[in-house]
Amino acid sequence: MIKIYSTLTRQLEEFKTIEPSVVKWYNCGPTVNGLMHLGHARSAIAFDTIRRYLEYKEYKVVYVMNFTDIEDRMIEVAKREKRAVLEVAEEYLSYFRRDMASLNLKEATVHPRAMLHINQMIEFIEGLIEKGYAYESNGDVYFDVRKFEEYGKLSNQKLENVLQEGTADTKNPNKRFPADFALWKNEKPSEPSWSSPWGKGRPGWNLECSCMSRIYLGDTLDIHSGGQDLIFPHHENEIAQSESLTGKPFANYWLHNGYINIDKEKMSKSLGNYVNIVDLLQYYSTDAVRLFVLQTHYRSPIIFTEDAIDQAQITSDRLFDVILLTKNYATETTVDKSALSDLDKDLLEKITKAREDFVKAMDEDFNTSNGFAVVFDYSREVNDYLRKADKINGSVINKADELFDEFRSVFGLYEDFNNYLSMDLVEKLVKLLVEIRGEYRKEKNWEMSDKIRD
Fold it and tell me: What pTM did the predictor assign?
């Protein structure tokens, strides 16, 4: 049984989908106004892995992740670079797609873009006005937060706290109340705009995700996710406008990933303390970056240091070596139970236990940290078997390899194994090392045998 910690209820809950074995999931994607950095990657890798695990548990996951291509920050970049917003969006979107592929992130079922859904957004706003939750003011349209009695339930704060914390715009004369947020923004010089019943303008950022999630997934989602920085105001505003329009719960489970911190501060473009993925992958493998992210539970913060990512690369390489060695010994034959040695039987029991322990760890709010602990222990057990066995049982090792494949599929690791295994030179080198190690083991030269293994 999978349990999920939902930000909305602030507790672990049993995961139950609206439709049996189908997960309707909307993840807030990036604003494509710059290169993908490690902060973006942390969120993307975490939710990609959770998706992979749900698929491992035989759910059909309908995964929608948007690209924000019209928003205040997009306009700022376009003005600074003296280019059209669409040109900026197309360029950085291509870079994001490149970096997402480099990180072995699965393609979303749908990647909606805001600019392609303007008409539906206008209809959404019209529905809110008709129901009395929104109002027009000098070409702008605002959501009236005081009309939504549960405003603040996701971020666990009251409306008066929003005003006290200074997050509300108290100087805008077009608003009825300082905390009201924009659904439609009146046209400004040199900004993209579209025709609407309220004059030319563009949608507010908060509206975009509510509208697109409804188009592709319906009124109520199983999961809505994003970074912790989106809890307020973005996700809070999404709940308000979506539930006001439909009268239904917007999402049953809210998942938010923790930050990556550098010098105790959140990694972000605004602070200038970020590491671009394209630069990071010049020095570290995709597998090392994924392992670095996933060794920490998705809700916990990660401290980024060069030592930490260096260690992730070392750990990734060692795990790869064990799996590659396992594949070299594996033979796809039926296990002959009458011919099993005590070591064979012991390894088969450990394979069963490792699978059970892995599922137990991941079922508890997708705890990849504990899941990796199981994988590392398991790799040591398999390596120990290969070192101790007088005669390696290829069918038993094949069972061990099958479990490694399951782990790899969930964590998104070493996806190019077939390329490695199809390289004649690599095959010859691995086999030569195995033969040399075997000779050292016969001579009981454990020191040299272990050096080759390591």
Answer: 0.90
